[in-house]
Amino acid sequence: MARTIIENIVIAKYEEQTFFEFCKYTTIRFFEILYFEKGTGTIKINGKTVPYTSNSIFVFIPDDIYIVNPDSATTTVAIKFLKSFFRNTSSQNGKLPVNGWFRKIEEILNSESHQLREMQFETESDRLHLVSLINMVATEYMREQTFDNFIIQNSLSVILHLIARNIQFINTAETVKAVKSSKIQQIINYIHTNIYNSELLTTKSLAEEFHMADNYISEYFKKHTDVSLKKYIINYKLKLVETRLKYTDAQDSEIAIDLGFTDSSHLNKIFKTYKGISLRAFKANLA
């Protein structure tokens, strides 16, 4: 059973299922959270099969295709953001913090390590918080006409934040060399968290934040990541630019301002230098 609670977001709960039909929303789904409240079985994702158990949580991004094959009666909750949600075509969505939600999902869209999409958590408390919030959304959903949009909207915001935070932790752990440095993890996390605030990402600001000399932090960063601090920040920004161009209707000028470029011309120049293609040509290739 599925119902659209907020325009272009579908909430679905299936109880004690021994068979799951192919998801009809696959072609128009942008992002999905799938929580296995109860049951065991396997889930085939993009041709690869992994097991699930009670309290497993998976996330899916555009083009992911999955099929659930239960071994025992399975109860799931699915929260699906449709592709149209993050495009500026809905008057109802205009009342929601859509841009803020997209920023949280960006980390997941850019995750290279999360190929099988099963969530891993930095702490067990994060898992428990996420499960509690998903259940809260499902409970409001089950109340049919008496659901509270305020609870659902705010719960979804925290859900996305928790997912993004833990994806960030996983990605950071895999970015650093075999000899892990908690300081490097902290720096990378700080960069990702503050990527929309360029003033906090200057060498001086980062050196002050992490109690290092201005002329040492860049050397330290490159030693542990094999890439310069400046290049890492620019490359990460350009990943976010690509994501915005692919999945939203944001104008070049909006993206430029959001990510700390002087204007769309400056963004285009940097994009072409690093990617070897102009913004216009990149968008044309998406068509």
TrEMBL record:
InterPro entries: AraC-bd (IPR003313), Homeodomain-like_sf (IPR009057), HTH-like (IPR037923), HTH_AraC (IPR018060). Signal peptide: none annotated. GO terms for molecular function: DNA-binding transcription factor activity; sequence-specific DNA binding. PANTHER family: ARAC-FAMILY TRANSCRIPTIONAL REGULATOR (PTHR43280), HTH-TYPE TRANSCRIPTIONAL REGULATOR EXSA (PTHR43280:SF2). It comes from Pseudozobellia thermophila. SUPFAM superfamilies: Homeodomain-like (SSF46689), Regulatory protein AraC (SSF51215). Residues 185-285 form the HTH araC/xylS-type domain. Pfam families: AraC_binding, HTH_18. This is Transcriptional regulator, AraC family.
